[in-house]
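assembly run, all chains below
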Amino acid sequence: MKQGEKTKKLILDASNELFYQKGYGSTSFGDIMQKIGLSKGNITYHFKNKEEILKGIVDKRLKEISITIKLWEEQTSDSKKRLRLFCQMIIDEQENIEKYGCPLGTLTSEFSKHKPKLYKIALPMFQTFREWLAKEYQSLGLGINIADEKAMSLLSKVQGVAMVTHVFKDRDFLLKEIESIKKEL
Amino acid sequence: MKQGEKTKKLILDASNELFYQKGYGSTSFGDIMQKIGLSKGNITYHFKNKEEILKGIVDKRLKEISITIKLWEEQTSDSKKRLRLFCQMIIDEQENIEKYGCPLGTLTSEFSKHKPKLYKIALPMFQTFREWLAKEYQSLGLGINIADEKAMSLLSKVQGVAMVTHVFKDRDFLLKEIESIKKEL
DNA sequence: GTCTATAAGAAGATAGAC
DNA sequence: GTCTATCTTCTTATAGAC
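ok done. output:
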């Protein structure tokens, strides 16, 4: 990898972490470049503007989501078990969720009210999960509409748990509630 | 009411609305004062700083929450019905929730990651509902710990619905899901 | 109490030296 | 490619006239 590509990747990784931990709006170019030990003037050599960084992050995350889903599908062909693997993700990430909330939910929420351009960039991450969940519910014999409703319902439950866990800093709640959601599947 | 008090109330009402619709961070003094047709230089005559406006809003909302709860308690002494009235609130506010999310959830989330001072100001609104829900679950014969868990669980479900409804702009989902939550109570 | 004008600071973005 | 310095814009907050 060339030096330029290397720095670009460093900026993306640092931004991804900071956008999650502090939020997009509260993360400045200074924060990002300080984290990787370069001067902040550098950032616009690698990215035209802040929005382009977000796009880079979403691309990166979408690829990671695809890989995660592929792993779940390789682990089992049982759709009910796959849905449980989806829920398990929240348990695996419990520490980060308690501290920072859901990485998808908090980012998308930050944009949904009044930043339509950024919202459109971030939304596909959510949609990917929604569509995959609906597909798995269809495999369980549900019609396409009901399957999508069930997908939304599961997304909703998991987002609620992440949100309340984060707001009340209560990881015990996360564990109990996710287990209960898994059982009800 | 004196003129000063009148203007102060106007600022609080306008801020309350804008903080909900645009978010706290994205609402400027200019936005607020433009909404009520006064010069923006005026604002610090009535409030020391932006944080004080937030405090005023939270005070106002806490009073409204108390009144709402009192109304629910007057409507029925059946705790299960009271819990359903809590859920019904989301249905009554469906239009706003679709557009702007939950007024409590989105505000608290905005602060929870990296603005601890503002977070502490906003949190009591959530706690009020949590404690009241737990009290009602206790009335249904549950022990104090289980009652609190059930309160968290209901808060979580409702927050999830509000969040997903807002992010996907899907009011139909809200209606179906809240009705389903009510039935399961 | 409200106005206009402005200070002070932060953030995104640009320019030119090295 | 990275640095330092600077520009511009926005926002909170202040000062003084009316």
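Chain B has ten helices and no strands.

The first helix of chain B runs from residue 3 to 22.

not gonna interpret more than that til we talk
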